[in-house]
Specification:
The complex is a heterodimer of chains A (109) and B (113). In chain A, 0% of the residues lie in helices and 46% in strands. Chain A is built from no helices and 9 strands. In chain A, the strands form 2 sheets. In chain A, strands 1-9-8-3-4 form a 5-stranded mixed β-sheet, with no helix packed on it. A 4-stranded antiparallel β-sheet of chain A has the order 2-7-6-5, with no helix packed on it. In chain A, a hairpin with a 4-residue loop joins strand 5 and strand 6. With 113 residues, chain B is mostly beta strands. Chain B has strands spanning 4-7, 10-13, 19-25, 31-37, 43-51, 54-57, 64-66, 76-78, 87-94, 103-104, 108-112. In chain B, strands 2, 4, 5, 6, 9, 10 and 11 form a 7-stranded mixed β-sheet that branches. In chain B, strands 1-3-8-7 form a 4-stranded antiparallel β-sheet, with no helix packed on it. The chains are: A mainly beta (109), B mainly beta (113).
């Protein structure tokens, strides 16, 4: 299965944009890129997903590189409630999602 | 009140005892999943089921068992054969066989004493 690489942690100031990177150099042509986030002691929450084109929803934007070997989750205005672990996941086969360690986002007031 | 219910939120058991974790959903989703999460780690897939009366092993199925007799329910039994069962267990559902969003329950934190 294709793997993803994310920084262990990132910090952002409140009300500023946040760009969370993810590398997936071995991605296959049919792999979707999913982002989930998890607050402490809670189940993960879906954020966004895409295949080739950039995607926007009410929570975030997903920018996918032209070669699809990397992607960036963009939170346009970080709030304290956005502090969480963010997982970048490739969905390639049998609908199994393989979660790595993710990026711990800290939002500073 | 729709969604995924996992009960109980906290569970304590003595070593050597089997324990069954409950996962119930009223979302009418076909697929259901069980994950395990250890502190500071990502989620690892234990078992999944895409349809009633059928299920497949995930990456770490040893020491666990499941059943899927009803669409709404996917209980997970942690057996005494699981060497290190203390963990946070998460149940998830998804709508169908294509690439799809997974919805997670609140989780059960199991501590084996």
């Amino acid at each position: 299965d294709a793997k993803t690489t994310q920084p262990n942690s990132m910090e952002s100031n409140e009300e500023e944009p946040v760009h969370l990177p993810c590398n997936h150099s071995t991605i296959s042509g049919t792999d979707y890129i999913h982002w989930y986030r998890q607050l402490p002691s809670q189940g993960p929450e879906y954020v966004i997903h895409g295949l080739t084109s950039n995607v926007n929803n009410r929570m975030a934007s997903l920018a996918i590189a032209e070669d699809r070997k990397s992607s960036t989750l963009i939170l346009h205005r970080a709030t304290l409630r956005d502090a969480a672990v963010y997982y970048c996941i490739l969905d390639g086969s049998a609908r199994q999602l393989t979660f790595g360690s993710g990026t711990q986002l800290t939002v500073l007031p | 009140d729709g969604g995924i219910t996992q009960s109980p939120k906290y569970l304590f058991r003595k070593e050597g005892q089997n324990v069954t974790l409950s996962c119930e959903q009223n979302l009418n989703h076909d697929a259901m999943y069980w994950y395990r999460q250890d502190p500071g780690q990502g989620l690892r897939l234990i078992y999944y089921s895409q349809i009633v009366n059928d299920f497949q092993k995930g990456d770490i199925a040893e020491g666990y068992s499941v059943s899927r007799e009803k669409k709404e329910s996917f209980p997970l039994t942690v057996t005494s054969a699981q060497k290190n069962p203390t963990a946070f267990y998460l149940c998830a559902t998804a709508t169908g066989p294509s690439t799809d969003t997974q919805y997670f329950g609140p989780g059960t934190r199991l501590t084996v004493l």
